[in-house]
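Slide 14.
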Amino acid sequence: MAELTIDAVVFDVLGTLVDEPAGLRAGIRALTPSASPYPYPSPSLGDSGTERLLLLWQRHIEREQGRVVDGDRPYLPSDALDREAAEIVARAAGAVDPAAGAAPDAVASLARAARRLPPWPDTVAGLARLAERFPLIGLSNASRTALLELNAHAGLRWHQALSAEDARTYKPDPEVYRLAVTVAGLPPERLLMVAAHAWDLRGAQALGLRTAYVARPVGDPPTSSDRFDLYAEDLADLADQLGVS
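Slide 15: predicted structure.
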């Protein structure tokens, strides 16, 4: 990879560095009958019920962020979209008063789960290793407030953390990637965007950033037509490929 010369590394956060589904599952599982203040709670969700509600959450966030990017909806920070998703999921889980709507405490607790996401086993050590060689920039669709809590909860190490909120849109809008280019003060081709989502890397690629796909159990794997600069099994493998000791 001698031809790959970079001066800073840009990381996606959700799914790439933290296990977003695991954190959301924990919040969804907390919507148990004992957590409901009403006398008619839903039965225990079970694994299949939890996965169904997780998919409901994910589809809402993906759809609504897409609407913002397409200009079909005014920008709202991720906090507001998480609150919408939490209310939809709480209602579907049965933690709802038919007269008053979703239980406020249940919705608020579930929305907070989106900020309490565990890091992947290699994340903390991998970031620390890479930080010895490169400036590290986090670039997330999470709001500024959510990103602060995510970083603190997962123990993520950054030299700079950027939120899509500063661009008032969401990835893969090029304006979000431009935030990292502007902060780094470097040509796009001197930045390496790292993500577990091929769609994210395509967005960065369109603006001229170099790209590295890191495999995760969740995410969006590359297709046969994708041509990214690096493909890594984890952050340790990425560091090895970048020549970081």
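Speaker note: The first helix runs from residue 20 to 29.
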